[in-house]
């Protein structure tokens, strides 16, 4: 989704994520992002690109993250709304803001497949859910799974519109109708190969849960579940 929306960014806008994915579809980051990345890149970075050890856009992506981590924390693309509002007060006040939410049980299963897709011996789903609750990291770091603070401030919604993942196409069209974006519905499926076993996913998320793990997710995402009325 980020790659698709980045088509509409102006030269002085910012983009913190999906830079490499966008380039795969010939969608390049704003000029401001490139300028700031080039300033942040070290001689070592330039040599890595020249020697073919790293791709140019991979280095650009890392440089952007490095620059804004100092202002917004270790993951600028997942910074809390309160941080974004502080670092970019004018933009926060003036821009139309929306977020995408997803059923926490469905999201947790998808997150499991995404985080473990390259592991030769992945943890079981039960182990993964327990790790989210703080019972070990299983070598999967960081386990940043909470999105609540990204669209709330002091537990109050801080965005202008909420899109539900379950109705993503319609929700995006409705959200972007409030902007100058002429939305065409195009979204490249950058993570189409993420699920280790798509047949299992198609059966539905409920079949992957035990009573215990379903309760763990309910506790972890209590605020989202209450706010948006999600059920198992």
Topology:
Layout: H1 2-5, H2 19-24, H3 31-40, H4 43-50, H5 56-72, H6 81-87, H7 89-94, E1 98-101, H8 104-116, H9 125-132, H10 148-151, E2 152-153, E3 156-157, E4 161-164, H11 168-176, H12 198-202, H13 211-220, H14 222-228
Parallel strand pairs: 1-4
Antiparallel strand pairs: 2-3
Helix pairs in contact: 3-5, 9-13
What string gives the helices and strands in order? HHHHHHHEHHHEEEHHHH
State the share of residues found in helices, binned by percent.
40-55%
Could you give the count of β-strands?
A: 4
What is the chains' assembly state? Answer: single chain
Mean pLDDT over the residues: 89
Largest sheet: 2 strands, parallel
Strand order of the largest sheet: 1-4
Structural class: mainly alpha
The rounded Rg comes to 19 Å
Shape verdict: globular
Regions with pLDDT < 50 over 5+ consecutive residues? 193-197
| Continuous helix count | 14
Q: Compute the number of structural domains.
A: 2
Distance between the termini: 26 Å
Describe it for me?
- The protein is mainly alpha-helical.
- Helix content is 49%, strand content 5%.
Describe this structure in a few short sentences.
With 232 residues, the protein is mostly helical. The chain has helices at 2-5, 19-24, 31-40, 43-50, 56-72, 81-87, 89-94, 104-116, 125-132, 148-151, 168-176, 198-202, 211-220, 222-228, and strands at 98-101, 152-153, 156-157, 161-164.
Task: Tag the structure with descriptive keywords.
single chain; mainly alpha; 2 domains; two-stranded antiparallel sheet; 14 helices
